[in-house]
TrEMBL record:
Similarity comment: Belongs to the hexokinase family.
Pfam families according to UniProt: Hexokinase_1, Hexokinase_2
Keyword annotations from UniProtKB, A to Z: ATP-binding, Glycolysis, Kinase, Nucleotide-binding, Transferase
InterPro entries: ATPase_NBD (IPR043129), Hexokinase (IPR001312), Hexokinase_BS (IPR019807), Hexokinase_C (IPR022673), Hexokinase_N (IPR022672)
Name the UniProt record assigns to this protein: hexokinase
Annotated catalysed reactions: D-glucose + ATP = D-glucose 6-phosphate + ADP + H(+); D-fructose + ATP = D-fructose 6-phosphate + ADP + H(+); D-mannose + ATP = D-mannose 6-phosphate + ADP + H(+); a D-hexose + ATP = a D-hexose 6-phosphate + ADP + H(+)
Pathway assignment: Carbohydrate degradation; glycolysis; D-glyceraldehyde 3-phosphate and glycerone phosphate from D-glucose: step 1/4; Carbohydrate metabolism; hexose metabolism
UniProt EC number: 2.7.1.1
One Gene Ontology biological process: glycolytic process
């Protein structure tokens, strides 16, 4: 019989694996918005979003409501890693009957304790005018909606004060404390730090009330355990209380906590795992002894996990095992064992003394006799085995729950392995000598991918509460400072409406013959008058010069679609910077080589030339080079017609296989390439290294070209928007610095707010300022970050990817030789988001001006139009296109704009320009 009893109390490993799985399922249930209400493991958000980092300093008050006492505590932190905080305690007994009386009386009493404690502890050396932050440890089930807002759901543990359930207990305590402060203190200003000043001023409308004590945080005791263990300079992200009850909390990815709006970073979740199994998942582990304990408890059917592991119940489980064995005549035969009917006859202390003294049968005998039993030698041995089984099982179940949490953390953080510190506190942990060993070995078996280090917490609820309060204040102060830095980069809707209006103004000026020279947006005519209609046909050559590579292409347009072949050619630096003749001769050589390889020498093919340098176009096939850029400086070209230069070279080389019909800007190529697939595509947009746009304008509005009929594509050159000072009000300190370090200061100002060449630099400047203000990297200087262009725009894409792919972010940080904490990563992400959002919004404001103008031009209430887009920033950044489209919808609600990604605008697009010109020419004939 004894063997059978022991067997039911021991749980095989496979069964523990199953239980771990159930625990993870229940945790997910508790976190999900849909299933949260029914979940047994409640997974309550605590609004604690960070663990201590050691820089916390100042005085912090804690008040803790306990079973029969109020504990007050004053903790002084020195910002020295929080190694040896100074602490002062005082304990006050709760008056008789107060736990059943009026709520107001209870809170008044707590407030009195605080006041009295303060008057005794804070002497002349503490500035009595200073506002003291207070952390409130309130160990009842609350619905918390902020760190300092928690509505009591129900009393427990013998408390039942009237008028509190459903109320915000922080507010009740604050009111009671304010009442204590008395009317004579009213109106006194507090001398707190920046955070308090800002809090105060924002509350100045409320009746002025000097708050010597401000309740900053409310928390449950488990959370406190986690926070104290973080003190030794390493983050502790899990805490377990193995005491009368049992509970666990951990830092979860905030976006998984669907019951809160927090999506960034992490939040401590109070699992309330004591209720695990209340829906039956533990039924097959529940022994008849557990059943009996449960039935005799004040809340049968509830807190089933807790009843198997909490020290409030372990003695009872042992008692029921003994009752069963005595009834089966396996123990205490022939003696009076009636005492076993007495509830609570064995305490956890008894059990611990037995299990900790492995060999001491005399100890067992002493205890059994003390409670009134007459044990035989055999009874003592069996008692020892039973106690070991019950206490060992409690430790094993704790370990299984812990394994579930560790595995869950590892999975949701997208890690292959997890190293984590676990703070533990409670009677079972402190009193059972094998607890830690079992915890580690079992959790290791069940979650081999996780490495836990156990840290013993001392007085979690007291010191921990002070830490929570301190961290809350640090975060509030940091938030304030971060907002201050980022505020100038955050644009309001009004700002954007204004940018849209300014862009519109500049467009009109650029189109006007007289006003054109003074416009920052040059609105260059392209002599492209039609977009493709799908009837284009034939073989075309295309050249792409001025992008990342020099390419020659052949583009075959048939009824069935477009096929292309291309080759990349190198332009040696000597030729880039030699004479114009050499350059264009080289280009012709490449074309001849290409046509030979492609077997195209026998034909005369029309050629479209994508030439990505600033040109003054005077015809479709006539464009004067305004200036070289991107490392080119071939002599004798500036001011010349580049089409003619190419034709001259062909003549010199006696190459008759091509005829240059069009010079094409890359925005136009993008529009044309998309236009072939979608006739509504009448706008081209590029957001890559730089940014630019083109669109189809009415000829009658183009003052710089003769003629009023039809439309012409206008190359806006919008990157220069603002070069006349009209956007000066938007430029931040960071933009100024970035601009000053470019090769063209004061130029391309709009582009410098938007495009890939600059976003990384803007972010870098912000990070430098934030480091200097000690908001990042704990103020440690990072020399690598001083290097220009070290923070690449593609980093923004990685960092902003949803869910914080931490591994990749780590790689970036390593490249930058940055030692970033998790919080640093979260803040860096916010910086990136702010910068890329602004870029997308500004781009949208520009586009809004374009589509609205087109709508007006056509005199329609609703315009449907497609934008052909190219550029790596637009294509690869995870949020840019979404932000752009959302903002555009808002700014131009009467335009229905579709975005279409372009493929090879400068190849395919150039050929299509040639094809459309060809088609138009044929139509004329
Ligand atoms: P170009 O504009 O010169 O034709 P791209 O359209 O390819 O070339 O744009 C290149 C720019 O895109 C780079 O300067 C870089 O700033 C940016 N970029 C590159 N990769 C990414 C990425 N993953 N996310 C966002 N931007 C990127
Ligand atoms: Mg490009």
């Amino acid at each position: 019989q004894i063997q059978r009893a022991l067997r039911t109390l021991s749980i095989p490993l496979e069964r523990l694996h199953v239980m771990k799985g159930h625990m993870i399922e229940d945790m997910c249930k508790g976190l999900s918005r849909q299933t949260h209400a029914q979940a047994k493991v409640r997974m309550l958000p605590t609004y604690i979003c960070s663990t201590p980092n050691g820089t916390e300093k100042g005085n912090f008050l804690v008040v803790e409501l306990c079973q029969s006492q109020v504990r007050t505590l004053l903790v002084t932190l020195y910002g020295d890693g929080n190694l040896s905080p100074q602490m002062m305690y005082k304990i006050y007994d709760l008056p008789e009957g107060i736990t059943q009386g009026e709520g107001e009386a209870l809170f008044d009493f707590i407030a009195q304790c605080v006041t009295q404690f303060l008057s005794e502890t804070t002497s002349s050396d503490t500035d009595s005018e200073q506002c003291l932050p207070l952390g409130f440890v309130f160990p009842f089930t609350c619905r918390q909606t902020q760190l300092n807002k928690a509505e009591l759901l129900s009393w427990s543990k013998g408390f039942n004060c009237s008028g509190v359930v459903g109320k915000d207990v922080v507010e009740l305590l604050q009111a009671a404390i304010d009442k204590q402060a008395g009317p004579d203190k009213e109106g006194e200003a507090s001398g707190g730090g920046g955070w308090f000043k800002s809090r105060k001023s924002s509350q100045s409308a409320a009746p002025s009330q000097s708050r010597h004590v401000e309740v900053v945080a409310l928390m449950n005791d488990t959370v406190g355990t986690m926070m104290t263990c973080s003190m030794e300079g390493r983050a502790c992200e899990v805490a377990m209380v193995a005491d009368k009850g049992s509970n666990c909390c951990f830092m979860a990815e905030a976006y998984l906590v669907e019951t809160t709006d927090e999506t960034s970073g992490r939040m401590c979740v109070n699992t309330e795992w004591g209720c695990f199994g209340d829906d039956g998942t533990l039924n097959d582990l529940f022994t008849p002894y557990d059943q009996a304990v449960d039935e005799e408890s004040s809340n049968p059917g509830e807190k089933r996990f807790e009843k198997m592991v909490g020290t409030l119940y372990l003695g009872e489980i042992v008692r029921h095992v003994l009752i069963a064995l005595t009834a089966e005549k396996a123990m205490f035969t022939g003696t009076d064992a009636a005492v076993l009917k007495e509830k609570g006859v064995f305490t956890t202390q008894h059990l611990l003394e037995i299990v900790n003294n492995e060999d001491s049968i005399t100890e067992v005998r002493r205890i059994l006799e003390a409670v009134g039993l007459q044990p035989s030698e055999r009874d003592c041995g069996r008692m020892q085995q039973i106690c070991r089984a019950v206490v060992g099982r409690a430790a094993t179940l704790h370990a299984t729950g812990l394994a579930a949490i560790l595995s869950y953390m590892c999975q949701t953080r997208d890690l292959e392995s997890l190293m984590v510190n676990v703070g533990v506190e409670g009677e079972l942990f402190a009193g059972y000598s094998r607890f830690e060993e079992i915890l580690l070995s079992v959790s290791r078996l069940l979650a081999p991918e996780c490495m836990a280090t156990i840290l013993a917490s001392r007085d979690g609820s007291g010191r921990g509460a002070a830490m929570v309060t301190a961290v809350a204040l640090r975060l509030a102060a940091q938030r304030h400072a971060v907002d201050e830095v980022l505020a100038p980069l955050r644009l309001s809707r009004d700002d954007l409406v204004k940018v849209q209006a300014l862009m519109r103004e500049e467009m009109d000026r650029g189109l006007g013959k007289e006003t054109n020279p003074s416009a920052s947006v040059r609105m260059l005519p392209t002599y492209v008058t039609h977009t493709p209609d799908g009837t284009e046909k034939g073989d075309f050559l295309a050249l792409d010069l001025g992008g990342t590579n020099f390419r020659v292409l052949v583009v075959r347009i048939t009824e069935d679609g477009i096929t292309m072949a291309s080759e990349i050619y190198v332009i040696p630096v000597g030729i880039m910077q030699g004479s114009g003749e050499e350059l264009f001769d080289h280009i012709i050589d490449c074309i001849i080589d290409f046509q030979t390889k492609q077997n195209l020498v026998a034909q005369m093919l029309p050629l479209g030339f994508t030439f990505s340098f600033p040109c003054q176009q005077v015809g479709l096939d006539k464009a004067l080079l305004l200036t070289w850029t991107k490392g080119f400086s071939a002599s004798g070209c500036v001011g010349q017609d580049v089409v003619q230069l190419l034709r001259d070279a062909a003549k010199r080389k006696r190459h008759l296989g091509m005829q240059v019909v069009a010079l094409v800007n890359d925005t136009v190529g993008t529009m044309m390439a998309c236009g072939y697939d979608d006739p509504k595509c009448e706008i081209g947009l590029i957001v890559g290294t730089g940014t630019n746009a083109c669109y189809m304008e009415e000829m009658k509005n183009v003052g710089t070209v003769e003629g009023d009929q039809g439309r012409m594509c206008i190359n806006m050159e919008w990157g220069a928007f603002g070069d006349n000072g009209c956007l000066d009000h938007l430029f931040t300190h960071f933009d100024q610095v970035v601009d000053e370090t470019t090769i063209n200061p004061g130029k391309q100002r709009f582009e410098k707010l938007i495009s890939g060449m600059y976003l990384g630099e803007i972010v870098r400047q912000i990070l430098l300022v934030m480091t200097e203000k000690e908001l990042l990297f704990q103020g440690k200087p990072c020399p690598k970050l001083q290097t220009k262009d070290i923070f690449k725009t593609k980093f923004l894409s990685t960092i902003e990817l949803n869910g914080l792919a931490l591994r990749q972010i780590r790689a970036i940080l390593n490249e930058l030789e940055l030692d970033a904490s998790f919080e640093d990563c979260v803040l860096m992400r916010e910086v990136c988001q702010t910068v890329s959002l602004r870029a997308a919004q500004l781009c949208a404001a520009g586009l809004a001006a374009v589509v609205e103008k087109m709508r007006e031009n056509r005199g329609v209430d609703q315009l449907s139009v497609t934008v052909g887009v190219d550029g790596t920033l637009y294509k690869l950044h995870p949020c840019f296109s979404n932000n752009l489209q959302t903002t555009l919808k808002d700014l131009a609600p009467n335009c229905n704009v579709t975005f279409m990604l372009s493929e090879d605008g400068s190849g395919k697009g150039a050929a299509l320009v040639a094809a459309v010109a060809d088609r138009a020419a044929n139509a004329m004939e």
